[in-house]
Amino acid sequence: MTEPLFRADAYLRETPATVVAVNERGGVILDRTVFYATSGGQPGDAGLLIRPDGTELPVSTAVYDSDRKTIVHVPQDDRPRPAVGETVTARIDWPTRYKRMRAHTALHLLTVALPYPVTGGAIGDGEGRLDFDIPDAGLGKDAIAGRVNDAIATDAEVRERWITDDELIANPGLVKTMSVKPPMGSGRIRLVEIVGLDLQPCGGTHVRRIGEIGRIAVTAIEKKGKQNRRVRIALE
Length: 236
Description:
The structure is a single chain. The protein is α+β, with helices and mostly antiparallel strands. The protein is built from four helices and 15 strands. The chain has helices at residues 5-8, 94-113, 141-152, 165-170, and strands spanning 3-4, 14-22, 28-30, 32-33, 47-50, 56-64, 71-75, 87-92, 118-123, 127-132, 158-164, 188-194, 198-201, 216-225, 228-235. The longest helix is centred in the middle third of the chain and has 20 residues, at 94-113. The mean pLDDT is 91.
């Protein structure tokens, strides 16, 4: 099992780690990592694994293995892999990660501006989109952006806490996403709270205060079906 340090501190940019395995495809598995692994519509981090002699192994992304507990660092090329037992420094591409953190947190606020079931979503580098189960967004791009930017202006704190599986089952309204359900079975679920504005299960990375997002724009509202509207946002 890889210890996911990004869950406790999304601002941690690097960490020493020990190589515990290299899989048959050349993916490197560490005992702990700051690399976010692809999930929930958020891409895995890119970055570097730096060996004791200073040699760098570029990492193109990070993904979960089939057990959902082990994170595999996918090298960008065929450079030599570190040996099992070797200590490396795992360092993420911070500017890209931070854009994703800001965009991801902004998407939480979009679900407040449009309080409808979410059927899908994706996070990019400074942009993102959500699909809503509604026949019509009911508002134009500027009006939706205005609601989100008004919320951002409050600079509310973003907190994280954990509840049990049973607590989530007893409070189904916490789950806004119809397409991605919170992983259950481990006994606890991570909640992300934007104080005074939003509370929902989420395993992604977020900013500490929503003022860090900056202003956003709604770049498109697309019709994807009779009951589906895709709303795209971008950081300004």
